[in-house]
Design a protein that fits this description.
Strand content: 15-25%
Order of helices and strands: HEHEEEEHHEEEHHHHHEE
Number of helices: 9
Shape: globular
Structural class: alpha+beta
Distance between the termini: 27 Å
Radius of gyration: 21 Å
Strand order of the largest sheet: 1-6-7-5
Helix content: 25-40%
DNA sequence: GTGTTTGTTATCAA
DNA sequence: CTTGATAACAAACA
């Protein structure tokens, strides 16, 4: 479940290995994976290079180089949704996705088999290096968009990011003061704050001592002060620890994140709260598993 | 077969 | 128009 810290970890790592590399070929094993027509998607990317890699919320944005005669750059969007992975390998160019069989499949190591089982697309670079897009559940997608499309997407779908000047206490007060919905659902809403998902919302609410079922408008300014600090603290710490691997997430080298053991409430239903020893409660809120301490969170 | 997992969007209601 | 609530998607596992 890649949220902001996991996507940011991938962004930073990929920046080091694929910037400036020329795309030699693109394979789409599953036509649903690219939101563009397959032929266009493949033809456009071939022989181009990635100029920059940015991120908005959980969305990765690869800027593709523009030819002289073109007046607008194109951008490759990558959304991992729940089970997407972007894995770069400098030596495993022979992996051919989930559709090959026979001798080729037999030659694979167990590690390779895991890597390739749900490969939906592959981008190969000149001079070595292959980027695998794996996605067991097939919620994730790749999409080429124009600069103006990208600006629209950013503007219409994403609120301010944690750890930026845009996410202020005044902003929080404003978006929550008239909301009757529970704070859990509001924090999951990408249009209000970009990048939080189920894990870090539960963790931030625990740190801020706020019960997830509280309505937005019921939360006092003093509590919002704490919530803002908690959100930034959790996100910063999770980035520092390269994200949380609960089941599917791995970084662009295929390695797990280190934040799992630092979780205070998520996935700890029934276990004792680290602070007060009373059992962590697990409920369903906003259609999501929600974990909190009934004693510490008011 | 049943319930559970979640990021996001569709859909419907008010 | 906004807001809210819920189902739906997809695949795997206990």
């Amino acid at each position: 479940m890649p949220e902001l810290p996991e996507v940011e970890t991938i962004r930073r790592d990929l920046e080091k290995v694929i910037l400036g590399k020329k795309i030699k070929s693109v394979i789409l094993f599953d036509s649903k994976t690219a939101r563009n027509k397959a032929a266009f998607f493949i033809n456009f990317l071939t022989n181009r290079q990635v100029v920059s890699i940015s991120r908005r919320g959980k969305l990765l944005i690869f800027e593709i180089n523009k030819k002289k005669e073109e007046n607008e750059s194109m951008y490759l969007l990558v959304h991992l949704k729940m089970t997407g992975q972007l894995i770069f390998s400098s030596n495993k160019e022979y992996l051919l996705g989930g559709h090959s069989s026979g001798d080729e499949a037999l030659k694979r190591s167990d590690e390779d088999r895991m890597l390739v089982r749900h490969t939906r697309s592959v981008i190969k670079f000149s001079g070595g290096g292959t980027l695998f897009f794996n996605d067991m559940r097939r919620f994730g997608y790749l999409q080429l968009v124009t600069k103006s499309d990208l600006e629209k997407i950013k503007k219409n779908n994403y609120g301010p990011e944690p750890l930026t000047e845009e996410l202020t206490i005044d902003y929080l007060v404003n978006i929550l003061k008239n909301r009757s919905t529970n704070i859990k659902a509001l924090l999951l809403n990408q249009k209000l704050i970009a990048g939080l998902g189920n894990i870090y919302v539960d963790e931030a609410l625990f740190l801020a001592k706020i019960k997830p079922s509280r309505s937005g408008k019921s939360i006092k300014r003093k509590e919002l002060d704490k919530l803002l600090i908690a959100i930034n603290e959790i996100i910063a710490s999770a980035i520092k620890n390269r994200g949380t691997t609960f089941n599917n997430y791995v970084d662009s080298s295929g390695r797990k994140g280190n934040f799992l053991s630092l979780l205070k409430v998520y996935s700890r239903g029934g276990e004792p709260c680290y602070k007060c020893k009373k059992p962590i409660k697990k409920i369903k809120l906003a259609g999501r598993g929600t974990h909190y301490c009934p004693n510490c969170q008011k």
